[in-house]
Specification:
Blueprint: H1 7-20, H2 23-39, H3 45-52, H4 56-68, H5 73-87, H6 92-105, H7 108-125, H8 128-145, H9 148-164, H10 168-185, H11 188-201
Helix pairs in contact: 2-4, 4-5, 5-6, 5-7, 6-7, 7-8, 7-9, 8-9, 9-10, 9-11, 10-11
Length: 202
């Protein structure tokens, strides 16, 4: 079973929580719980989607709290975790808006974690051509970070964006570089997804 309440009761309870002076602490613990909840990936994407769907309002509240924090790390972390859910077609436009907010607030190190995700959703919701420069910037930031895994995934996302924008030669080059780098580092998931995107494009 699940617990629910009337909206008027929820608003009253929220007002009482604010007046108690404990709202930020409680909402911070709420964020931590739902960040862990969203971080537990299921093997099958459909079961992941089904598991998150009933608690999407809680995840949205956690995002709203994160957006209010001075440090942008919280919104970057949670928006990055929810990217897969949004990319599966759930709340796609809303996901685009949250990732855009995360990208706009983050410095280069944090921005590198979510810019490729944002580029993908930007392509799906706005324009693949407009998404291409974002995806290229994501690769540049990943290279600057020195983290090979980040470079692999940024290259895969670049290849995906460029293939949808019909810039096929550059897309193939990005995907082949990602596959080779992933293979050399033992990054099996990145290698598999790069091969999947290359096969889809071909």
């Amino acid at each position: 079973g699940r617990f629910g309440m009337l909206e008027t009761v929820r608003q009253y309870a929220a007002a009482r929580l604010v007046s108690s002076g404990e709202a930020n602490d409680v909402r911070g613990r709420h964020f931590d719980f739902f960040f862990r909840f969203a971080s537990t990936r299921d093997e099958a994407t459909e079961s992941f989607r089904r598991r998150l769907y009933p608690d999407y309002d809680n995840l949205r509240r956690a995002l709203q709290w994160a957006e209010d924090q001075e440090d942008p790390e919280a919104i970057v972390r949670l928006a990055g975790r929810l990217y897969g859910y949004w990319a599966l077609g759930r709340n796609l436009a809303e996901g685009h808006r949250w990732l855009q907010r995360a990208v706009e607030r983050a410095g280069d190190e944090l921005r590198s974690r979510v810019l490729g995700h944002f580029a993908h959703l930007h392509g799906m919701t706005v324009s693949w051509e407009e998404a291409a420069p974002l995806a290229r910037e994501a690769v540049a930031l990943a290279r600057a970070s020195g983290r090979h895994r980040s470079v692999v995934w940024a290259l895969v996302e670049l290849g995906n964006v460029l293939s949808n924008a019909w810039q096929l030669d550059e897309a193939e080059a990005a995907l082949r570089e990602a596959i080779d780098l992933a293979a050399s580092d033992g990054e099996v998931h990145g290698q598999a997804f790069g091969l999947f995107q290359l096969g889809r494009m071909t």
